[in-house]
């Protein structure tokens, strides 16, 4: 029995900001969900199940908050699942929801991911003191910066590549009304002059801390046929995990990321991602991860990813635009960041991305990762239904 | 035609009180080995892995990432995690097998309740604006539900004591046990605080028959959630359990066994009513959550125990139930059957 | 086997919660001794007022004042109040349906003992002396045998509404690092670095985590590693980390101890930060009373060749 094709018929996001002081946690998620339903022209009664995701509960100080959010998301009397796979969770949540449709368990599923970081402090949530252990010496950026240095050593990439990514993503964000950072006076010089926080990572090459939510309505063929607007079809989706730290781990280009991408490409019938995929919404919390993931995802050979960035291939008007929305570098409600990647990929193939639309985008990859570069989730969406 | 999927193996810790000397992965790993050994599978043979756990129990963010060490996720595996009881991890894995993405799945969950005060930890699940600031602990909320049942004439203290006594293997006419914790619930009506882990292997179709002499086929599985606020719910009933049971096909034919996840004796009364279980049904031969309630694993244990009864030929059609949230807010029901003997 | 270590772990934070319009009105009302409910599409009055109808999922905003008097719908006697609960003397938890409401509110009920409480008893709000716009502005309920109070018809518009609350939360845990970490920590107190070897792949993990993460089996064979090692990669930290009293800039490095198959993390000292490099050979520097090495310093050996540690990156 073949799987039911899955379509994205509704997408909603909040306008991401540092602190949404005008809404409760329920109000925040509701806003994204309501917009997704409006996009799909559906009502709460049309939703069969809700799949929600977020990063650690300590961020908001609410244990398993989906219990409290059931009412706001119209889940009462319905199945509700809560996914948590660290930073990749937004992507994983969408995949769990998609699978409910693919397995024909449900016809229409609302999926949503969020983080309301202003309820606490992300660094507190990420570094709860653990007795006997050496305190985390460097913060979140410090955790990733040594891997960036390792990448630079391996690839011989010039120091400036990271700043090019940040400059591009921040300019892309200016075209995205939902993006958190709108730095209208951004220049490459300003990025390059920003303070070096965790050398080799500069302040302007790091992601912000945001309040935000993102929701999607996923449905089957019948649901897609009723959709009022163009739909995005899922052509492939996969999750892969490897241990946090282990002997032989390639922190620059983790095997789990390669395997995950290969699985997605196999499902989608993609032989040459560089040629066959039109654009990528990639999870890049620190600018240097763009060239690193370009290699990991098979868009460039090992050590060559930075050349795509440097030559402008990943610009909005380039041959392989990356993070048209401004990416995680411009918007980071942690638990939602992965789903925003997936949703922005879907917006592109639906032709509804507005000012950051890539002309003629037909196949776009959404990518998320988390933990110590150990959890990966990805999907490939297309403007046409999948072949099989 | 829908794919047939079965529970083919189950393992759990012996739920002793506390596992202080062990980290989560040290507690979990023997259970993973045991469940894989039962099937002869290795991690690399498993098509999908899914786990359930909760950061708040241990007081550490991302605690599930280190538990993954016990799996041996190398080469990389297709894997997911729910911040829920492992019963819902099993549900996610079931959909994965149903879609044909995998033929086998490893499902596990674990919880260390002893490092914190689980009564207080669970208050953090409540409405963060109106309820959590009052710190009403899990026993207090269950006691409100128990009193509502008593007021409605659905039970009384001796009947609750009988539930507790039967669960712990003593005589069913036992007198109320222990002092009041929060009246009307006594220590005997409340779950012991334990650490524990559980694991299950799922397999589809012929693969299940290869791996297990008598697979426990999942004939139906469904879960439903209710409104969060206690004040808008009828605490003497569990409409979400009933609806999940209907969707899972539980009422089509009688079951011989029911494994109910009722952490408090009074909640078994609610569940029996919602599930229309009569005295002919063996309820919680494992002892249920009143014998051992490893939080985040206790629901998966119910499914595993129900399946194990089928594996051993002691049961032909069993119902397994899992719950989450205050006063049975969210409920899952699975119906398992063995092939005719 | 040496005694397993344990230590208190406190998870504590004052969460800042924004309220949204309905919750803002309710909590501001409590500050002003007004109890508000919200009317659903089918005319029920929910108290406390929620933002979304639990039945239809519709957004609801129509605020209605109800009485501060009501009826107990169920209760439970709490003879041993716990930290953070509304009263520190024995009390009843109660769900109270206020006059004019269709649903019940959870709070404490102050009564002399369980015999003085029953379902159906009449109660009223006892207001807190100091009210800030929080659910604790209701100090508790108390028995009441008068007539239902009459609400004044407040619509929920207040001056200076509260828009947020601070919700401090503290949970106390007892943390134990488990068997493998305990052994490692005991060895550290003798200033030895002891890893564990996987019986299957033979890799040496330091610190050991109790399981070989690639093989999924317990590690137990102890192996002395270091004390010297190689900096595999690093970053220069220019911002002060929370709760850390280290002058910036400093170097945070991944260090592969000799004999270990995985790098651990540490600070590099004894050398200007801008002279640290990949391949630098280092050794731990211990300070009195500290469990972990304070930092690592250069040994003076020639740098390790990239080929010797690139697999450990």
- Average predicted confidence as pLDDT of chain C: 95
Kindly report the name of the CATH homologous superfamily of the domain at 7-122 and 209-226 in chain A.
Thiolase/Chalcone synthase
Low-confidence region ranges of chain A: none
Number of strands of chain C: 20
Strand order, main sheet of chain C: write it out: 7-6-5-8-9
**Mean of all residue-level pLDDT scores of chain A:** 96
Shape of chain C: elongated
Top-tier CATH class of the domain at 7-122 and 209-226 in chain A = Alpha Beta
**N to C succession of SSEs of chain A:** EHEHEHEHHHHEEEHEHHEHHHHEE
What is the level-2 CATH architecture name of the domain at 7-122 and 209-226 in chain A? Answer: 3-Layer(aba) Sandwich
**Shape call of chain A:** globular
Helix content of chain A: 25-40%
Gap from first CA to last CA of chain A: 12 Å
CATH topology name of the domain at 7-122 and 209-226 in chain A: Peroxisomal Thiolase, Chain A, domain 1
| Tally of alpha and pi helices of chain A | 14
What number of domains of chain C?
3
Radius of gyration of chain C: 31 Å
Class of secondary structure makeup of chain A: alpha/beta
Q: Helices and strands of chain C: which structural class?
A: mainly beta
Q: What is the CA–CA distance across the termini of chain C?
A: 34 Å
> Number of DSSP helices of chain C?
3
């Amino acid at each position: 029995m073949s799987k039911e094709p899955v379509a994205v018929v509704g997408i909603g996001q909040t306008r991401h900001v540092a602190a949404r002081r005008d809404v409760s946690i329920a109000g925040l998620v509701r806003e994204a969900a309501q917009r997704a339903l409006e996009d799909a022209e559906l009502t709460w009664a049309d939703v069969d199940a809700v799949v929600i995701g977020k990063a650690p509960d300590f961020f908001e100080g609410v244990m398993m908050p989906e219990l409290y959010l059931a009412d706001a998301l119209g889940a009462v009397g319905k199945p509700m699942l809560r996914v948590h796979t660290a930073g990749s969770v937004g992507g994983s949540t969408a995949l769990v929801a998609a699978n409910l449709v693919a397995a024909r368990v449900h016809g229409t599923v609302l999926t949503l991911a969020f983080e309301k970081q202003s309820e606490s402090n992300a660094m507190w949530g990420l570094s709860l003191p653990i007795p006997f252990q050496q305190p985390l010496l460097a913060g979140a950026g410090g955790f990733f910066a040594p891997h960036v240095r390792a990448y630079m050593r391996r690839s011989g990439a010039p120091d400036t590549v990271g700043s090019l990514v940040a400059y591009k993503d921040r300019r892309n964000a200016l075209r995205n009304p939902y993006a958190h950072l709108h730095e209208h006076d951004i220049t490459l010089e300003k990025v390059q002059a920003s303070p070096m926080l965790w050398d080799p990572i500069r302040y302007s090459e790091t992601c912000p801390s945001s309040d935000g939510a993102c929701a999607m309505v996923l449905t089957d063929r019948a649901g897609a046929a009723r959709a009022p607007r163009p739909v995005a079809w899922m052509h492939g989706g996969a999750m892969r995990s490897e241990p946090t730290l282990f002997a032989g781990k390639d922190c620059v280009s983790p095997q789990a990321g390669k395997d995950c991408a290969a699985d997605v490409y196999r499902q989608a019938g993609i032989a040459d991602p560089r040629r066959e995929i039109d654009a990528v919404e990639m999870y890049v919390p620190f600018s240097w991860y763009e060239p690193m993931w370009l290699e990991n995802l098979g868009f460039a050979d090992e050590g060559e990813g930075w050349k795509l960035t440097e030559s402008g291939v990943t610009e909005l008007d380039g041959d392989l635009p990356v993070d048209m929305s401004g990416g995680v570098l411009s918007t980071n409600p942690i638990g939602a960041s992965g789903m925003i990647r997936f949703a922005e990929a879907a917006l592109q193939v639906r032709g509804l991305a507005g000012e950051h639309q890539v002309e003629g985008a037909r196949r776009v990859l959404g990518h998320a990762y988390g933990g110590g570069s150990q959890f990966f989730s990805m999907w490939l969406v297309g403007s046409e239904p999948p072949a099989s | 035609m829908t794919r047939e999927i079965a529970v083919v193996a189950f393992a759990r810790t012996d739920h002793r009180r506390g596992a202080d000397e062990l980290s989560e992965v040290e507690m979990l790993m023997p259970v993973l080995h045991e469940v894989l050994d039962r099937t002869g599978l290795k991690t690399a043979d498993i098509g999908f892995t899914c786990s359930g756990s909760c950061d708040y129990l241990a007081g550490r963010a991302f605690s599930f990432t280190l538990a993954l060490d016990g799996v041996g996720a190398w080469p990389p595996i297709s894997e997911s995690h729910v911040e829920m009881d492992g019963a819902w991890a099993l549900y996610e894995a079931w959909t994965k097998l149903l879609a044909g993405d995998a033929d086998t799945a490893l499902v596990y969950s674990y919880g260390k309740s002893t490092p914190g005060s689980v009564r207080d930890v669970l208050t953090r699940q409540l409405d963060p604006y109106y309820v959590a600031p009052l710190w009403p602990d899990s026993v207090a909320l269950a006691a409100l539900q128990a009193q509502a049942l008593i007021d409605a004439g659905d039970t009384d203290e001796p009947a609750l004591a009988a539930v507790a006594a039967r669960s712990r293997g003593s005589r069913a006419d036992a007198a109320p046990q222990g002092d009041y914790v929060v009246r009307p619930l006594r220590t005997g009506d409340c779950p012991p605080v334990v650490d524990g882990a559980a694991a299950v292997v799922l397999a589809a179709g012929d693969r299940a028959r290869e791996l297990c002499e008598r697979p426990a086929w999942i004939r139906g599985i469904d879960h439903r959630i209710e409104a969060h606020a206690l004040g808008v719910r009828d605490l003497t009933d569990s409409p979400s359990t009933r609806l999940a049971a209907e969707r899972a096909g539980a009422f089509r034919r009688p079951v011989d066994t029911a494994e109910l996840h009722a952490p408090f004796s009074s909640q078994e009364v609610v569940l029996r009513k919602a599930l229309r279980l009569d005295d002919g049904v063996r309820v919680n031969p494992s002892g249920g959550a009143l014998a051992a309630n490893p939080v985040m694993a206790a629901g998966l244990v119910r499914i595993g125990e129900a399946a194990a009864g089928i594996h051993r030929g002691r049961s032909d059609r069993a119902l397994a139930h899992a719950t989450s949230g205050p006063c049975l807010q969210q409920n899952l029901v699975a119906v398992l059957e063995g092939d005719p003997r | 086997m040496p005694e397993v270590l344990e230590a208190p772990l406190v998870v504590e934070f004052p969460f800042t919660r924004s309220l949204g319009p309905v919750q803002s009105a309710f909590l501001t009302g409590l500050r002003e001794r007004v109890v508000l409910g919200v009317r659903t599409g089918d005319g029920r009055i929910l108290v406390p007022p929620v933002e979304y109808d639990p039945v239809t999922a519709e957004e609801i905003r129509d605020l209605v004042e109800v009485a501060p008097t009501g009826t107990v719908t169920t209760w439970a006697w709490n003879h041993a109040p716990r930290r953070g609960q509304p009263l520190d003397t024995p009390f009843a938890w109660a769900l109270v349906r206020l006059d004019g409401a269709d649903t019940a509110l959870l709070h404490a009920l102050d009564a002399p003992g369980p015999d003085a409480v029953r379902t159906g008893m009449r109660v009223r709000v006892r207001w807190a002396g100091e009210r800030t716009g929080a659910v604790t502005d209701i100090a508790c309920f108390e028995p009441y045998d008068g007539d239902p109070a009459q609400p004044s018809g407040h619509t929920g518009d207040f001056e200076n509404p509260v828009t947020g609350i601070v919700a401090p939360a503290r949970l106390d845990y007892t943390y134990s690092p488990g068997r493998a970490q305990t052994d490692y920590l005991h060895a550290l107190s003798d200033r030895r670095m002891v890893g564990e070897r996987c019986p299957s792949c033979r890799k040496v993990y330091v610190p050991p985590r109790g399981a070989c993460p690639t093989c999924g089996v317990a590690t137990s064979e102890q192996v002395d590693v270091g004390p010297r090692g190689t900096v595999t990669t690093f970053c220069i930290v220019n911002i002060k980390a929370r709760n850390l009293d280290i002058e910036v800039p400093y170097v945070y490095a991944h260090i592969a101890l000799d004999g270990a198959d995985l790098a651990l993390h540490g600070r590099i000292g004894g050398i200007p930060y801008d002279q640290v490099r990949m391949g630098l050979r280092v050794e731990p520097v211990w300070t009195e009373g500290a469990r972990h090495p304070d930092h690592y310093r250069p040994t003076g050996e020639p740098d390790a060749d990239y080929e010797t540690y690139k697999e450990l990156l």
